[in-house]
Structures are given as structure tokens and as C-alpha cells.
């Protein structure tokens, strides 16, 4: 019976699939491995491919970056949350330590080009400004490291994690080159199945072009006793000068008060979508 139980648990682990953007060694891969250790993982080239895989059931959960404490939100992911039928079921905060990587034996003075994701470049701008490298954006940090490893050119370097350096056989020429010592990327965990309960929930909505329409929506949230923890706007690409709003609210969306608030809010908004909920402080 014990052997059967172990086989069943192993099968369950293998059948649960986690999708992430990038390649092995990318920060998304590191986050996915820490939140869902031992689970089957699948890499996708773009953020949108991860959302599509979650929506069509190719993977059970997607792990994508949502915002960075230094460079701010990942706008493309916010737009995809608006467009796709995917639900946030959790969040995970990953400490980011950027490093300058190069081929073994390369020296700092050998480098001419440095490759990395544009957000990683932004996070290290102060350090980079003190050097004369040609800085070249790349789809993600791990792909940049992989490219440098495969080129075999000591004039090329990459900005990525220490884990990525070990994975692709690169040396760390300069560790911890973040401009800010507090560099954290928040990832959201996506599922096709809506979550139940939690102590935080997220909404996206649009309001009519009437005076005070946005203020009215915010008053409805506050009037029912909910704290609006954050709100941000994004342009609706297909409609010039029109915007949708993303809001994070403290509370349980399944509570009677929240149900009443959402019902009232739906009457005040042109469009309203509950993106999901999670337990703050939980990593999965």
C-alpha cells in the first residue's frame, strides 16, 4: 500500500504542469521552481503564450512577473490579465540580485557588449553608466546568458542571476550590481479555475466618461468598508484616450459585503472583471 501511495503521489507531481516565460535559469523559472518544487515545468517564449496555455489547459498554473519594486509594473502582463480568462490565485515575491556574467577567464576590461532584458538593464543603470559597454536589450536574462555562453566571445557579457551563471557555465565578474539594494520582483500565479476566498482580491474595470465616475467607483469600494490598497490605470490600446483601471482590495471577495460591493460596482462601471484572490503572505 505504501508503494502504491508513493507511485500515486509521484504521478500527481508529474501530471501537474507549470508554465513560465523564458528559458531555464530565467527569474520566472526560478520563481516557478520555488513555488512548485518537483512539478513538471514548461517554458514558453512570451507572456501571452503562458496566458494562452493556462486558458486552454495546456498547463495547470502559470507563473509570470507582475511588477518590480524598482522599475514598476510589467504593463504587458496587466493587459493580458484584462484580455484573457485567467485568474490570479496567488503571488510570490522573489529577491532579485543582478550580476555581470562573462566567460571563464574574461576580465572586466575585455567586455565590449553587455546583453540582458530591458528591465534588468534599468535595474542596473547606475552601475552600467560608470562603464563604456554597449548595452543590448535581449528577450530575457537567461537567454542573454545562454547567448554569451554559446558565442564563446570574451568581449560579450550578460546581466543575470547567480543561478543562471552556474547553469550556463559563466563566471560572475561583478556581483550585486542592482542600483537599489531592495530589488524584488512580484510574480502572479495564474489558473483557469477561479479561486475561492482569500484576504486580497484584484479587479479591473472601466468607467463612463462622466464627471466623477472614477471617484464614484472608489467611493463604492470604500463605502462598503474595503481598503483600496492600490489602483493604477492602463490605456486601452484599441481605443484612443480611453483607460481601464486595475485595483487591489483588502478583503475576501466571497464575503457578503464584497458580493454587495461588487454588485453595486458593476452598476457604476462600464465593464468589471474580478481577476482573482489570494491569501496575502502565502506563496502558493
Overview of the structural elements:
- With 284 residues, the chain is of the alpha/beta class.
- It folds into three domains: 2-95 and 183-191, Periplasmic binding protein-like II (D-Maltodextrin-Binding Protein, domain 2); 99-174, D-Maltodextrin-Binding Protein, domain 2 (3-Layer(aba) Sandwich); 200-278, Alpha-Beta Plaits, CATH 3.30.70.
- The chain is built from ten helices and 15 strands.
- The protein has helices spanning 2-15, 27-35, 47-56, 75-83, 118-123, 125-128, 141-151, 162-167, 213-223, 256-268, and strands spanning 17-21, 40-44, 61-68, 72-73, 87-95, 99-102, 113-116, 134-137, 156-160, 171-174, 184-191, 200-206, 227-235, 243-250, 271-278.
- Strands 1, 2, 3, 4, 5 and 11 form a six-stranded mixed sheet that branches. A five-stranded mixed sheet has the order 8-7-9-6-10.
- β1 (17-21), α2 (27-35) and β2 form a beta-alpha-beta unit.
- α9 packs antiparallel against α10 (256-268).
- It is elongated and about 65 Å long.
- The chain starts with a helix and ends in a 6-residue tail after the last strand.
